[in-house]
Amino acid sequence: MRLKDKVSIITGGGGGMGRVAALMFAAEGAKIVVAEFSDAAGQETVRLVREAGGDATFVKTNVADEASAKAMVDHAIATYGRVDVLYNNAGIMPEADHSVIDTSVEDWDRVMAVNVRGVFLGCKYAIPPMVAQGSGSIINIASFVALIGCSNPQDAYTASKGAVLALTKSLAVQFAPKGVRTNAICPGPVETPLLMDWLVKDEEAKRIRLARNPTGRFGKPEEIVAMGIYLASDESRWTNGAAMVVDGGITVNYF
User: Fold this and answer.
1) pTM of the prediction?
2) What is the CATH number of domain 7-245?
3) Could you tell me where the DSSP H helices lie in the chain?
4) What is residue 27's predicted lDDT score, i.e. its pLDDT?
5) Distance of alpha carbon 90 from alpha carbon 8, whole angstroms
6) Is the alpha carbon torsion for 241, 178, 227, 198 positive or negative?
Protein backbone atom coordinates (compact mmCIF):
# COMPACT_ATOMS: atom_id res chain seq x y z
CA MET A 1 0.00 0.00 0.00
CA ARG A 2 1.38 3.37 -1.04
CA LEU A 3 0.09 5.33 1.98
CA LYS A 4 0.16 2.70 4.70
CA ASP A 5 -0.56 4.26 8.11
CA LYS A 6 -0.08 7.83 6.86
CA VAL A 7 -2.42 10.05 8.85
CA SER A 8 -4.10 12.26 6.28
CA ILE A 9 -6.31 15.26 6.95
CA ILE A 10 -8.64 15.93 4.02
CA THR A 11 -10.48 19.23 4.18
CA GLY A 12 -13.84 19.39 2.47
CA GLY A 13 -13.91 15.63 2.79
CA GLY A 14 -17.70 15.40 2.89
CA GLY A 15 -18.28 15.43 -0.85
CA GLY A 16 -16.95 15.90 -4.37
CA MET A 17 -13.22 15.41 -4.79
CA GLY A 18 -12.77 15.46 -1.01
CA ARG A 19 -14.86 12.34 -0.53
CA VAL A 20 -13.14 10.64 -3.46
CA ALA A 21 -9.79 11.54 -1.90
CA ALA A 22 -10.81 10.08 1.45
CA LEU A 23 -11.86 6.80 -0.15
CA MET A 24 -8.83 6.52 -2.43
CA PHE A 25 -6.31 7.49 0.26
CA ALA A 26 -7.88 4.99 2.65
CA ALA A 27 -7.71 2.26 -0.01
CA GLU A 28 -3.95 2.89 -0.11
CA GLY A 29 -3.70 2.39 3.66
CA ALA A 30 -3.97 5.96 4.96
CA LYS A 31 -5.76 6.82 8.19
CA ILE A 32 -8.25 9.53 7.28
CA VAL A 33 -9.37 12.60 9.17
CA VAL A 34 -12.44 13.91 7.36
CA ALA A 35 -12.51 17.65 8.04
CA GLU A 36 -15.89 18.90 6.91
CA PHE A 37 -18.37 21.61 7.92
CA SER A 38 -21.45 19.46 7.31
CA ASP A 39 -21.90 16.84 10.02
CA ALA A 40 -24.05 14.60 7.83
CA ALA A 41 -21.71 14.73 4.82
CA GLY A 42 -18.60 14.18 6.93
CA GLN A 43 -20.09 11.26 8.82
CA GLU A 44 -21.26 9.72 5.54
CA THR A 45 -17.70 9.81 4.18
CA VAL A 46 -16.46 8.13 7.35
CA ARG A 47 -19.12 5.46 6.97
CA LEU A 48 -18.13 4.81 3.36
CA VAL A 49 -14.44 4.57 4.24
CA ARG A 50 -15.08 2.16 7.10
CA GLU A 51 -17.51 0.13 5.01
CA ALA A 52 -14.70 -0.34 2.49
CA GLY A 53 -12.37 -1.55 5.25
CA GLY A 54 -10.55 1.72 5.90
CA ASP A 55 -9.87 3.77 9.01
CA ALA A 56 -11.47 7.22 9.27
CA THR A 57 -12.74 9.75 11.77
CA PHE A 58 -14.74 12.96 11.40
CA VAL A 59 -14.07 16.42 12.80
CA LYS A 60 -16.49 19.27 12.15
CA THR A 61 -14.37 22.01 10.59
CA ASN A 62 -14.76 25.53 9.32
CA VAL A 63 -11.43 25.94 7.53
CA ALA A 64 -11.75 29.74 7.55
CA ASP A 65 -11.94 29.86 11.37
CA GLU A 66 -8.66 29.74 13.28
CA ALA A 67 -9.94 27.88 16.33
CA SER A 68 -11.64 25.32 14.11
CA ALA A 69 -8.50 24.77 12.02
CA LYS A 70 -6.43 24.24 15.16
CA ALA A 71 -9.04 21.83 16.53
CA MET A 72 -8.88 19.88 13.26
CA VAL A 73 -5.16 19.25 13.68
CA ASP A 74 -5.51 18.61 17.42
CA HIS A 75 -8.18 16.00 16.63
CA ALA A 76 -5.88 14.22 14.20
CA ILE A 77 -3.06 14.08 16.74
CA ALA A 78 -5.36 13.03 19.60
CA THR A 79 -6.86 10.27 17.46
CA TYR A 80 -3.85 8.96 15.57
CA GLY A 81 -0.79 10.49 17.26
CA ARG A 82 0.60 12.39 14.28
CA VAL A 83 -0.15 14.16 10.98
CA ASP A 84 1.59 13.00 7.81
CA VAL A 85 -0.51 14.62 5.08
CA LEU A 86 -2.62 17.77 4.86
CA TYR A 87 -4.77 17.69 1.73
CA ASN A 88 -6.14 21.23 1.42
CA ASN A 89 -9.13 20.46 -0.76
CA ALA A 90 -11.91 22.65 0.71
CA GLY A 91 -12.92 25.46 -1.62
CA ILE A 92 -15.87 27.42 -2.94
CA MET A 93 -16.76 28.78 -6.38
CA PRO A 94 -19.96 30.79 -5.91
CA GLU A 95 -22.22 31.59 -8.83
CA ALA A 96 -22.02 35.30 -7.96
CA ASP A 97 -18.26 35.37 -8.64
CA HIS A 98 -17.70 37.14 -11.97
CA SER A 99 -15.40 39.93 -13.13
CA VAL A 100 -13.96 42.36 -10.58
CA ILE A 101 -16.34 44.99 -11.93
CA ASP A 102 -19.48 43.10 -10.95
CA THR A 103 -18.42 40.90 -8.01
CA SER A 104 -19.47 42.18 -4.60
CA VAL A 105 -16.96 42.77 -1.85
CA GLU A 106 -18.88 40.28 0.28
CA ASP A 107 -18.56 37.52 -2.33
CA TRP A 108 -14.89 38.33 -2.87
CA ASP A 109 -14.16 38.13 0.86
CA ARG A 110 -16.12 34.90 1.24
CA VAL A 111 -14.08 33.19 -1.49
CA MET A 112 -10.80 34.44 -0.04
CA ALA A 113 -11.77 33.32 3.46
CA VAL A 114 -12.33 29.70 2.44
CA ASN A 115 -9.91 29.28 -0.46
CA VAL A 116 -6.91 31.22 0.89
CA ARG A 117 -7.32 31.71 4.63
CA GLY A 118 -8.44 28.09 4.88
CA VAL A 119 -5.17 26.89 3.34
CA PHE A 120 -3.14 29.31 5.48
CA LEU A 121 -4.77 28.13 8.72
CA GLY A 122 -4.48 24.44 7.89
CA CYS A 123 -0.78 24.88 7.17
CA LYS A 124 -0.29 27.10 10.24
CA TYR A 125 -1.31 24.28 12.56
CA ALA A 126 -0.33 21.14 10.62
CA ILE A 127 3.23 22.13 9.74
CA PRO A 128 4.64 22.44 13.30
CA PRO A 129 3.87 18.80 14.26
CA MET A 130 5.19 17.68 10.88
CA VAL A 131 8.42 19.58 11.53
CA ALA A 132 8.62 18.02 15.00
CA GLN A 133 8.39 14.51 13.54
CA GLY A 134 10.73 15.39 10.65
CA SER A 135 8.37 14.56 7.80
CA GLY A 136 5.14 15.58 6.15
CA SER A 137 3.42 16.43 2.89
CA ILE A 138 1.24 19.47 2.28
CA ILE A 139 -0.95 19.17 -0.83
CA ASN A 140 -2.80 22.31 -1.88
CA ILE A 141 -5.56 22.14 -4.45
CA ALA A 142 -5.12 25.14 -6.75
CA SER A 143 -6.53 25.34 -10.29
CA PHE A 144 -5.55 25.69 -13.93
CA VAL A 145 -7.10 29.18 -13.82
CA ALA A 146 -4.20 30.26 -11.60
CA LEU A 147 -1.97 29.76 -14.67
CA ILE A 148 -4.01 31.27 -17.51
CA GLY A 149 -6.63 33.93 -18.02
CA CYS A 150 -10.28 33.00 -18.49
CA SER A 151 -12.71 34.59 -20.94
CA ASN A 152 -15.57 33.68 -18.60
CA PRO A 153 -14.06 35.26 -15.49
CA GLN A 154 -14.40 34.12 -11.90
CA ASP A 155 -11.96 36.66 -10.57
CA ALA A 156 -12.23 35.95 -6.86
CA TYR A 157 -11.76 32.21 -7.41
CA THR A 158 -8.92 32.82 -9.88
CA ALA A 159 -7.11 35.20 -7.54
CA SER A 160 -7.58 32.83 -4.62
CA LYS A 161 -5.99 29.95 -6.50
CA GLY A 162 -3.09 32.16 -7.60
CA ALA A 163 -2.53 32.98 -3.95
CA VAL A 164 -2.52 29.27 -3.11
CA LEU A 165 0.20 28.68 -5.71
CA ALA A 166 2.36 31.52 -4.36
CA LEU A 167 1.94 30.27 -0.79
CA THR A 168 2.82 26.74 -1.89
CA LYS A 169 6.16 27.92 -3.26
CA SER A 170 6.99 29.91 -0.13
CA LEU A 171 6.21 26.98 2.17
CA ALA A 172 8.21 24.62 -0.05
CA VAL A 173 11.31 26.76 0.42
CA GLN A 174 10.81 27.28 4.15
CA PHE A 175 10.03 23.80 5.32
CA ALA A 176 11.62 21.25 2.96
CA PRO A 177 14.90 21.57 4.91
CA LYS A 178 12.90 20.39 7.91
CA GLY A 179 11.38 17.40 6.12
CA VAL A 180 8.03 18.90 5.09
CA ARG A 181 7.27 19.07 1.36
CA THR A 182 4.62 21.37 -0.10
CA ASN A 183 3.11 20.96 -3.55
CA ALA A 184 0.01 22.08 -5.43
CA ILE A 185 -2.29 20.35 -7.87
CA CYS A 186 -3.82 22.48 -10.63
CA PRO A 187 -6.87 20.60 -11.93
CA GLY A 188 -8.66 21.52 -15.10
CA PRO A 189 -12.48 21.39 -15.15
CA VAL A 190 -13.51 18.27 -13.25
CA GLU A 191 -16.86 16.50 -13.04
CA THR A 192 -17.78 17.51 -9.52
CA PRO A 193 -21.26 18.54 -8.34
CA LEU A 194 -19.94 22.10 -7.91
CA LEU A 195 -18.97 22.46 -11.57
CA MET A 196 -21.56 20.24 -13.19
CA ASP A 197 -24.47 21.98 -11.48
CA TRP A 198 -23.30 25.25 -13.00
CA LEU A 199 -22.50 23.93 -16.47
CA VAL A 200 -25.69 21.90 -16.78
CA LYS A 201 -27.53 25.22 -16.61
CA ASP A 202 -25.34 26.75 -19.34
CA GLU A 203 -24.78 24.52 -22.37
CA GLU A 204 -22.80 27.23 -24.17
CA ALA A 205 -20.31 27.50 -21.30
CA LYS A 206 -19.97 23.72 -21.36
CA ARG A 207 -19.40 23.69 -25.13
CA ILE A 208 -16.71 26.40 -24.93
CA ARG A 209 -14.81 24.60 -22.17
CA LEU A 210 -14.87 21.24 -23.93
CA ALA A 211 -13.82 22.79 -27.25
CA ARG A 212 -10.62 24.10 -25.66
CA ASN A 213 -9.59 20.76 -24.16
CA PRO A 214 -7.65 18.41 -26.47
CA THR A 215 -9.11 15.37 -24.70
CA GLY A 216 -12.65 16.57 -25.43
CA ARG A 217 -13.94 15.82 -21.94
CA PHE A 218 -13.89 16.98 -18.35
CA GLY A 219 -11.64 15.31 -15.84
CA LYS A 220 -12.74 12.68 -13.34
CA PRO A 221 -12.20 13.28 -9.62
CA GLU A 222 -10.19 10.06 -9.45
CA GLU A 223 -7.71 11.45 -11.97
CA ILE A 224 -6.94 14.40 -9.71
CA VAL A 225 -6.77 12.35 -6.53
CA ALA A 226 -4.34 9.94 -8.20
CA MET A 227 -1.87 12.83 -8.33
CA GLY A 228 -2.63 13.53 -4.68
CA ILE A 229 -1.75 9.96 -3.76
CA TYR A 230 1.60 10.35 -5.50
CA LEU A 231 2.31 13.60 -3.63
CA ALA A 232 1.26 12.05 -0.31
CA SER A 233 3.43 8.99 -0.83
CA ASP A 234 7.14 8.52 -0.36
CA GLU A 235 7.43 8.15 -4.14
CA SER A 236 7.37 11.96 -4.32
CA ARG A 237 10.05 12.55 -1.69
CA TRP A 238 12.03 14.79 -4.12
CA THR A 239 8.95 16.60 -5.44
CA ASN A 240 8.67 19.96 -3.68
CA GLY A 241 7.24 23.32 -4.66
CA ALA A 242 5.66 21.90 -7.80
CA ALA A 243 2.43 22.93 -9.49
CA MET A 244 1.21 19.64 -10.91
CA VAL A 245 -1.12 20.43 -13.81
CA VAL A 246 -3.77 17.76 -14.43
CA ASP A 247 -6.05 19.29 -17.04
CA GLY A 248 -6.21 17.15 -20.18
CA GLY A 249 -4.03 19.73 -21.95
CA ILE A 250 -6.32 22.76 -21.71
CA THR A 251 -3.50 25.08 -20.56
CA VAL A 252 -1.30 24.24 -23.56
CA ASN A 253 -3.97 24.63 -26.22
CA TYR A 254 -3.98 27.83 -28.28
CA PHE A 255 -6.21 28.31 -31.32
Assistant:
1) 0.95
2) 3.40.50.720
3) 16-27, 39-51, 66-80, 105-112, 118-133, 155-175, 193-200, 203-211, 221-232
4) 98
5) 14
6) negative
